[in-house]
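Researcher: I'm preparing a figure for a lab meeting and need a structural model of a single chain. I don't have an experimental structure, so a prediction will have to do for now. The sequence is pasted below. Please return the structure as tokens so I can convert it later.
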Amino acid sequence: MNKIAKSSILVAPFLALSMSFCFSNPVYSSFGLMELPAGSDEILAYAPVSFTLHSHISARMSTPLSTHLNSGLHAHLQSQSQEQDLLKEAVAMLTRRDLQIKKLIGEEGTAIPDSTREELKKIINEVIDYGYMAREALQETYSEITQEERDEFVTLFSSMIRDNSLANPDIYRAKITYDDARQTDGTIFVDTTAELNDVRTTVGYLLDYRANEWHILDMSVDGVSTVESYRRQFQSIIRKRGFEPLLSSLRKRAARNQP
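Model: Understood. Here is the structure written out token by token.
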């Protein structure tokens, strides 16, 4: 089955389980950003980049992922039984989010009032670590820009995702199966399968546990990493035009989404 045929469900598990990267283009949930011709006001578009989720993060770090994140997992994994308990907790957290969203969104064809939309956006986005995603996407640029620029970038980046997280409510109705959960390098990876309209899609979640809270760091759809897609496209824009045009484009996008 081709990617277009799968497009109706690719974003469903990502959004319904709080890894909300459903963009204005719903065809592929793990779309990155790419530059359009010079002079265009809209330099951000979406294009898939195939990459294995966990390997690309570990391969680019000189220290373990757990050290980079100051992960709280190691403190909890003092025995095999404790590790299994934490894996179960990770799956339980994702399951709760999915059930919460399905309950709020209602049956197919049900209208969603504005108050419910805001509640849905909160559930969808509250466990996503946007700061981590921004650092990974910007790479060395993150350390070169000012703190003010970092804060603005994270705010605009997260706003872009939040504003479009309910673009296609039907995708939240996908049936989710939890296939596997494992601990690697101080993080948890959960494999799931989403099924909607008889189409099945594999979805993976990279999670970290810090300060008694779960954080979703990245997700993959059919092996495509969201963070890596952003990193490649952001870096392409930065190399060709610099950081400011990237920030400017995000500002314009945020302004268009204002009511």
